[in-house]
Design goal:
Structural class: mainly beta
Number of helices: 0
Largest sheet: 20 strands, parallel
Distance between the termini: 45 Å
Length: 196
Amino acid sequence: DDSTLDGTLSGTGTVTVSGSATWWGTMSGAGTTKVLAGATLSIADYTTLADGRLLDNSGTVELPTDNRYVSASGTAPLLRNRTGATIRRTATGTVGVQLRVPVENDGAVISDGGVLELTQGGPGSSGSYGGGAGTVALGGGVHELGAGATLLAGAVLSAGELAVANGATVVTSGATTFSSGTISGPGGLSVEGTMT
């Protein structure tokens, strides 16, 4: 079923998206919003995760609108992208789309065109960044990458820190860019494509 999440959604319980839903407004409180495998949550406008809210994605989080962002407020919220799940910019414009919340990525973060920027880092991620026709920019905060994490064509480290966990090797594949920021950590970085 198609549904719309508008205004403010708050509380400590769990809201589940099992089909297609469009979200604008605020999700707050220590509860969880779950996007199930096969489901899609479309973030169509300016939105906020607040006060410890968890957006837990096992399906697709779609960003279809140019020049929009998801912001954070209060106690740090989290956008968790699970194995097999996708965060995808589908907006066709030239102005960036930003995720201003920490992103824990064990799935795929992709831009089909233009820039999708992650400005607040994220914990313990083992997924992929890039691989579409657009740019996925790690643009701020500390992005903690573990075993299995990959930077694909179109991935850019443009600010902040890419921290590789102990015992992990992050692989870059295709044309990636290191324009600013810091690469750190006891783990390794294996450049298997081209990095400029």
